[in-house]
C-alpha cells in the first residue's frame, strides 16, 4: 500500500514511519511512503506558502496554489504513459479537528485502498477552495487541537498500515486485539512466573487451549464492562442478535458469522430486525421478520443513507422482502444462492496435503480462472493469505485453488481440467474448513443455484444445505 503525504514538515513523518514494524514492511515492499513537501510547489520566490485570511482574523492560512500543485504532482504519477488520462481518483484525507473522529472501523476501511493521500494542515488552516477540489475525507483524531496535521496523520497511517495484509507477522493478532467485536483485549503475562509476589494466572500455565480461550473471553468481558461500558452494551446487543439468527442457522449463517467474526457492523436496527454492512465495503445483509419491518428499517436514517449510495449489494433470505426491495426500491436480482454450513466441531480428513497459501506472484494465474472478480479484490485476498493452492502437478505450479472471501464465505474454487475427479476439491475445502474451525468459526459457503458439482461436494463433506434460497440484490 502506498501513502502520499502532503506536508510542510516531511522529516517529521519520514523518521517516525520508517521505524519498527512499518520500517520492516517498507523494506519488504508491503508499504511505501511518499512525502511531498508543499513548500517545493510554491510559486512565491521567497518560498512563502501562507497568507492572511480575507475578512481578518487570527493567524495565517495555507494558500490554495502550493497545496493544489503538490497534490497534482501525486496525481501526475498516477497518469498513464501518454500522461493525459487520469488512471484513478485517489482517496484524499485532510486531517483536521473538524473531521469525523477516526476509529478502528475507519482504519479497516481505508486499509483496503491501494493508495491514499494525506493532507496535513498548519497555521490556521487551508484555503477552503482547494479543500473543496481535492479532499474526499475529513478526519480528526479526537476533540482537541494540535499544532499541525503531521502527528494525526502519523497516528492514522500507523493504524491503517498495520492492517494491510502481511504487515503484521501474525494475521491473527489484528483479529484478537482491542476493539475486535467491541471487546477490549484480555490481560497478558510473560516470564517470570512470579514477579513482585504476583503470580501469573494458573490457567495460562495449564496448556489447555480451550480453557485458556474461555478465560481470556471472560477477562475481556469483565474488563470491557468495567472500563468501557459503552462498548460492552454494543457487544451484548450483537450477542442477542446472533442468538436470534441462530434459530434459523442454515438460513442466516452469513449474518451470524459476520457478526461473530467482527466483519460487519450494524447500520440500523429495530428490535430484532437489523441491517448489517460488511466492514469497509458496499455489501449489506438484511434480517427482518416481515416486509413491514424491512421497510421500517430502510426508511430509518442508516437505511436511507444506504439507499442513497451507488453500486451496492444487499443479501436477503425472504421472498416477500426480495419482492419489496425490487418493487419499492428498484433493486435488481444479481444472484440466487443456497447457503451451506459446516456445523460440526470435528476437523475433516485432508487426503492430499500439498496445500499452501498462494501469493501475489500467482495473481495472473488466479485472475485467469476466477472471472467475475476484480483484480484488485483478488490481489487483496492473495496478500491476506486467503487463497490456498494445491500442488499435485510436476512443475511446481498450482493445479487448483480455493479461497475465503472478504465477507467470510468460502469460494473461488477451481481445479485444472486434467486434475479433476482426483479429490483435489475435497482436499482444498477440507483444509480451509479445518483452518476456520481452529479459529472457532463456522465455515460456510454460498452456492449458485445451478452448480450441482459444488452442491455435491458440500454434501460429501458433511455441510448442511439450506433448502431456501438467498438473494443477492444489486442497486445502482
Ligand atoms: N490538526 C490539529 N488537530 C487535529 C486533530 N485533533 N485531528 C486531526 N487533525 C488535527
Report on the architecture of this protein.
It contains 17 helices and 21 strands. It has 4 domains: about 1-160, SPOUT methyltransferase, trefoil knot domain (Alpha/beta knot, 3-Layer(aba) Sandwich); about 175-225, Trp Operon Repressor, Chain A; about 250-335, no CATH class; about 355-475, Aminopeptidase (3-Layer(aba) Sandwich). The protein has helices at about 10-15, 20-25, 65-75, 105-110, 130-135, 150-160, 170-175, 210-225, 230-245, 250-260, 290-300, 300-305, 320-330, 365-370, 375-385, 425-440, 450-460; strands spanning about 1-5, 30-35, 50, 60, 90-100, 115-120, 135-140, 195, 200, 265-270, 275-280, 285, 310-315, 330-340, 355, 385-390, 400-405, 410-415, 445-450, 465, 470-475. The protein is an alpha+beta fold. Strands 10, 11, 12, 13, 14, 19, 20 and 21 form an 8-stranded mixed sheet that branches. It has a 5-stranded parallel sheet with strand order 2-1-6-5-7, with helices on both faces. A 4-stranded antiparallel sheet has the order 15-16-17-18, covered by helices on one side. Helix 8 (about 210-225) crosses helix 9. Helix content is about 35%, strand content about 20%. The structure holds adenine (ADE). Adenine (ADE) binds next to strand 5.
